[in-house]
């Protein structure tokens, strides 16, 4: 799914899925409310599938960055670089998990 179109009474909103997700919680709360209220179950299932696929990609990147960092001597610029990459990707992965949780009904776990 490249674009998500949410149609409601007074208009519509189109989200570029790869650009919008993962997003911070204030924006996600607003988007999740619209998605859960106005999108069909089929569209939500397709969106959740795409988001889970993206989350798996972030998880794989985190693992790769960890492996690269562990293979280097401690306190070297290269190791710090890979740790920084891991930290950035881990933030995106956690955001994506929270986004998925809100769209799938707001349940934890």
Task: Summarize the structure in words.
The protein is mostly helical. Helix content is 69%, strand content 11%. The chain has 4 helices and 2 strands; from the N terminus they run E-E-H-H-H-H. The longest helix has 30 residues, at 41-70. The radius of gyration is 17 Å and the shape is elongated. It starts with a strand and ends in a 6-residue tail after the last helix.
Short description:
The protein has 109 residues and is mainly α.
Key phrases:
109 residues, elongated, Methane Monooxygenase Hydroxylase, Chain G, domain 1, 69% helix, two-stranded antiparallel ribbon, mainly alpha, single chain, 11% strand
The backbone outline, from C-alpha atoms, is: elongated
How many domains comprise the coordinates?
Answer: 1
Distance between the termini: 25 Å
- Helix tally equals 4
Please compute the radius of gyration using only Cα atoms. 17 Å
Strand order of the largest sheet: 1-2
Binned strand content: 5-15%
Can you give the mean pLDDT?
94
Helix content: 55-70%
Secondary-structure-derived class: mainly alpha
Series of H and E elements: EEHHHH
Q: Do you know the CATH architecture? A: Up-down Bundle
Major β-sheet profile: 2 strands, antiparallel
Secondary-structure blueprint:
Elements: E1 3-8, E2 11-16, H1 17-20, H2 25-38, H3 41-70, H4 77-103
Antiparallel strand pairs: 1-2
């Amino acid at each position: 799914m490249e674009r998500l179109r949410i149609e409601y009474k007074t208009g519509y909103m189109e989200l570029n899925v790869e650009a919008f997700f993962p997003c911070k919680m204030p924006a996600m709360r607003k988007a999740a409310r619209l998605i859960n209220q106005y999108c069909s179950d089929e569209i939500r299932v397709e969106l959740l599938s795409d988001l889970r696929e993206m989350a798996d990609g972030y998880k794989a990147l985190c693992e790769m960055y960890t492996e690269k960092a562990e293979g280097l001597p401690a306190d070297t610029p290269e190791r710090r670089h890979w740790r920084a990459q891991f930290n950035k990707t881990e933030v995106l992965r956690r955001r994506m998990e929270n986004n998925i949780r809100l769209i799938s009904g707001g349940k934890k776990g």
